Structure formats: structure tokens, C-alpha cells
Amino acid sequence: MTVLNALIGVAVLLILTIAVGLAARFMQGRARRRLSAQIVGPELVGEDALGARATILQFSTDFCTRCPEVHRDLGDVADARVGVTHLDVDLTHRPDLAKRFHVLQTPTTLILDQDGVVTGRFGGVPHRNVVEFELDRVINDEPATV
After folding, report:
1. Phi-psi region for residue 46, left (φ > 0), alpha (ψ -120 to 50) or beta?
2. What residues are paired with 120 via a beta bridge?
3. How far apart are CA 108 and CA 101, in angstroms?
4. Per-residue pLDDT reduced to its tens digit, 119-132
5. CA 72/CA 35 separation, integer angstroms
6. Model-level pTM?
7. Complete DSSP assignment for 1-34
8. Alpha-carbon distance 22 to 126, whole Å?
9. Which CATH number fits domain 31-141: 1.10.10.10, 3.40.30.10, 1.10.10.410, 3.10.580.10?
10. pLDDT tens across 63-89, in order?
């Protein structure tokens, strides 16, 4: 192998690495809607009940440096809407949930409708306006009850 071939190989690997990194960064904090029909019951996450209209389910760990800030932001978003609950599950103590929901990074946030059906998913730090949009979409899709 010549030095030129080695340099070309390194350059190709560097470009590929940068492309993968940019793609991963682009997907951070964005909602994914193509989800399997997962249903989360309150007992699964150790709670008494989900939100009457929607639930923000945050998965965190003890060593996540961004999770406390995300917890405050998502709590504020939930508090600003009637019938929306914010739950935070520490995966350090619940690795079974990390496996069940394929959580590869923390924070990971799920948006649940009133029945606990997962309607949105955010990997990494979610953008507040996107979370609000997803919640409004879930809340407004519900039939009006009298």
C-alpha cells in the first residue's frame, strides 16, 4: 500500500465519520412519529395514573448531565396545559424499561395520549417548541367530551 492510498483511505473515513455525525446531530431533539403501537400503563413506570389528556414520559439516568434541565423544561410545558402530566423515570434503577423502549441515550422523551399510546419520541434534548407542538397535536386530536 502506498502513502497516497493510505491518505485517500483516511480521507474517505473522515468524510464518512463527519457525515454520520452530522446526521445524528440533525436528528437530536426532533420528534419521530413512525412508532410501533406501544402502550404505556401507569403501573409500568411506577405511577398511579397518566395525564387525563396527555403524558410526557422522560427517561433519565443518574449520570445524565442534561436531564435535570430537560426535567424542568418538560415540567413547565406540562404545567402550562390542563390534563398533561410529566413523569420522569430513572433508567439507572429500571434497565428493563431501557430495553423495552430501546432507549440508547438519555434523555429520551415519549409523548403519550390519554390512553398511554406512544405518539411521539425524542432522542436527546427535545426542542421545547416541538414538544409543545406534539402535545397540542395529541390533545387536539382527541374527541371532545361533554
Report:
1. left
2. 111
3. 10
4. 999 999 999 999 99
5. 26
6. 0.72
7. --HHHHHHHHHHHHHHHHHHHHHHHHHTT-EE--
8. 17
9. 3.40.30.10
10. 999 999 999 999 999 999 999 999 999
